[in-house]
Design brief:
The protein has 93 residues and is mainly alpha-helical. The protein has a domain of 38 residues. 41% of the residues lie in helices and 4% in strands. It has a two-stranded antiparallel sheet. The two termini are 53 Å apart.
């Protein structure tokens, strides 16, 4: 990354960089940009997207209980103090 580009970007972001910070940030941004260039080399033409901004359905799995897991009612029976289906706990504050 050119120093002038870094200086302009830092000014627009209202960042004050000294010479050492500017050199370090310039190196880091250059490494990032070269990594992005490598990513551009990967052929993704035949891959389906994993997310979409207009997706209308959840991708969550259905809730299911394993055979050896307790049911919610069984768990509530173990609670020391209940009010309806809520577990009461001591006040903290």
């Amino acid at each position: 990354m050119k120093k002038s580009d870094l200086t302009i970007t830092a000014t627009l972001a209202r960042l004050e960089l000294d010479e050492v910070e500017a050199l370090k940030l310039g190196d880091e941004v250059s490494r990032m940009l070269s990594y992005f260039e490598k990513m551009n080399e990967v052929d993704v033409k035949d891959l389906e997207p994993t997310t979409h901004a207009l997706q209308k359905e959840n991708r969550l799995r259905e809730d299911r209980r394993l055979p050896n897991e307790a049911t919610p009612d069984e768990l509530l029976e173990c609670a020391p103090d209940l009010e309806d289906r809520f577990i009461l706990i001591p006040n903290v504050l």
